[in-house]
Amino acid sequence: MTIMSLYEGILIGVIQGVTEWLPISSEGLITSIASLGFGHTFKQAVSLSIWLHLGTACAAILSFRGHLFKISKDFIQDREHSKELGPLIIAVLISGMIGFPLLLLIREVPLTEGAGDATMILIGFFMVISGFIQRSRMESTANIARRQLSITDATFLGIAQGLSVMPGLSRSGLTISVLLLRGLDQQKAITTSYIISIPVALAAAGYIGITDGLFLSTINLLASFVAFVFGLLTIRIVLGFAERVNISKLLIGIGLMMVFASIPFLVARIYLT
């Protein structure tokens, strides 16, 4: 079992609650802090970063309880015409098939961290370029975004979420970027990204909590609760921000955050090795 002090538990809980919903790798950040700053092994640090998703998943459930209820109600009342649940299930299954084997691998092989940071930088640059292209399109033509998730959207979404298990890759950054580039409305893209994280995060946190005994520690439970509280606050801020900016600015902002959040960690890892 990974043992933390009260200070460590509160700190990483705050970091998880805030960064999970931003285009920053919460797993990579917490893994680095727990291993380099607090002296935990890489495996213990990865386990902590996965465990804390229990808190942010619960924050997403509470934040989107109305939307989740509507999806369930529509499916129960009219399964034939319920179009939203099917693609979400497909995305969850794909992300699980990709993410679970990767989770088992990265806990034993810490070499994936630098690759994740480098990938985030490349994706970030691509997002910035896409944002400027989108801005020029908006100035010349009327841009109509979709609000319905297709099977193809769900496939790309599931792949992105599965790969985001790797430290250094931002789950929210990758999934929101994929949906925006697929042409989904930005509010729909963010909401879908957050909702789709719930079942996978709960499953991963539950698995780690049981196999590593993390749920037996009061400090670990407190850290997850802190992540829950700060996750609720951050979700509201991000959704409010997304309502006030257009998609080109959102793409550029996400891309820049990916780049500037990943460069310091990549440089540090190269220097330390």
What does this structure look like?
The protein is mostly helical and 273 residues long. The protein has 12 helices and no strands. The protein is globular and about 45 Å long. The model has no long low-confidence stretch (mean pLDDT 80).
In short:
The chain has 273 residues and is mainly alpha-helical. The chain has helices at residues 6-19, 26-37, 42-51, 53-63, 65-77, 85-106, 112-140, 151-163, 171-181, 186-211, 218-244, 247-272.
Set out the fold topology.
Elements: H1 6-19, H2 26-37, H3 42-51, H4 53-63, H5 65-77, H6 85-106, H7 112-140, H8 151-163, H9 171-181, H10 186-211, H11 218-244, H12 247-272
Helix pairs in contact: 1-2, 1-11, 2-3, 3-10, 4-10, 4-11, 6-8, 6-10, 7-12, 8-9, 9-10
| Number of alpha- plus pi-helical segments | 12
Report the mean per-residue pLDDT as an integer. Answer: 80
Question: Biggest β-sheet: count, sense, barrel?
Answer: none
Q: Which structural class best describes the helix and strand composition?
A: mainly alpha
Low-confidence stretches: none
Q: Could you tell me the radius of gyration in angstroms? A: 18 Å
- The domain count comes to 1
Number of strands: 0
**Helix-strand pattern:** HHHHHHHHHHHH
